[in-house]
Amino acid sequence: MIRLNGEDCDVSPGETVAAVLARLELSPEARGVAVAVDGEVVPRAEWRSFALAEHARVEVLTAMQGG
Amino acid sequence: MMRGMHEAIGTASKELTIAGRTLRSRLLLGTGGFPSLAIMAEAIAASGSELVTVALRRVDPASRGSLIDVLAEAGVELLPNTAGCFTARDAVLTARLAREAFQTDWIKLEVIGDEDTLLPDAPELLRAAEQLVDEGFVVLPYTTDDPVLARRLVDVGCAAVMPLGSPIGSGMGIRNPYNLTLIREAVDVPLVLDAGVGTASDAALAMELGCDAVMAASAISRAEDPVRMAHAMRAAVEAGHLARGAGRIPRRTYATASTPEQGLPDFG
Fold it and tell me: Predicted ipTM?
């Protein structure tokens, strides 16, 4: 289990950031997307290899109107 | 002759350079509050703006918006912001994520200290600015209209300062023009009025006081006719900038006749 954008999400140990993005219908090439895991940026180049630990807090962000 | 002069004014004073990037428009746009992406795109075109700010928020699978595509289509540069951050830590992380998402080192830094007024938190803002400059960001901080804080932000390496005229979205205009004048004297980086603009005359006044640019968001997006207001802001920023360059007459208590007394007839 991890926290994905503030909600519980079933993820098997060892699943990657890219696999979680796929659940949001986002490809690793998606424009204007950034990922933080436990308060640290995960660079796009590491999305396919970065394995998520149990209880990881994953934030997937994109551009929104505002500011 | 007159035509040549007009062109000289146009080229000599029109362009704005921030951290080595040249902008033809001195109007920066916020994207929040537009009734639709289509109206936003139309307003951007009417404004002539080349630099448009966007926030970062969680991906919402339900509403796959095409904000990025619309802005790319409009041909504008993105200026990501840290709207909604209340601590230096959150703002720094948001800036890093923005760099990752949009491949830009530019960040409009907002660190808010109070939910009701959305006024900046000065110590957190300065801390975040220093950190981000260290990490190679081009930092454009949203700040209070405090000349001392503005100078401190420049001292830590900010590429511009963006003081408020009045609270975000308040439409109250420039509450303390005297402070803006002092900031203009205190810093030699680009000065951008960032909040409080309600209508075109506020934008013109900002430029007349010596601002290099104006950022408008709600004033345009929440106007009854955003596209028309975008056009008005564009004209106001240009008018204010030209007036600043032209040098206004001093204010006087009493009238000064513009017509010579010599040759005045005597009607008995």
Answer: 0.94
